[in-house]
Design brief:
Helices cover 24% and strands 22% of the residues. It has 51 residues and is of the alpha+beta class. It has one helix and three strands. This is CxxH/CxxC protein (TIGR04129 family).
């Protein structure tokens, strides 16, 4: 699973597609995951991408 901020959404989607060869599940971060940080820059994550 990749967590990303608004800035790194495209990069996270590209990385997920490259790894799996298919389009991943893309959703908004909610609940307990609200304190999760972006895998690319450390800012608060807004989206999660499940491969």
């Amino acid at each position: 699973m990749i967590f990303c901020c608004e800035t790194h959404t495209d990069r996270a989607l590209d990385d997920a597609v490259e790894e799996t060869g298919t389009f991943p599940l893309f959703s908004v971060v909610i609940g307990e995951e609200l304190s999760t940080v972006c895998n690319y820059c450390g800012e608060t994550a807004v989206y999660k991408i499940e491969e």
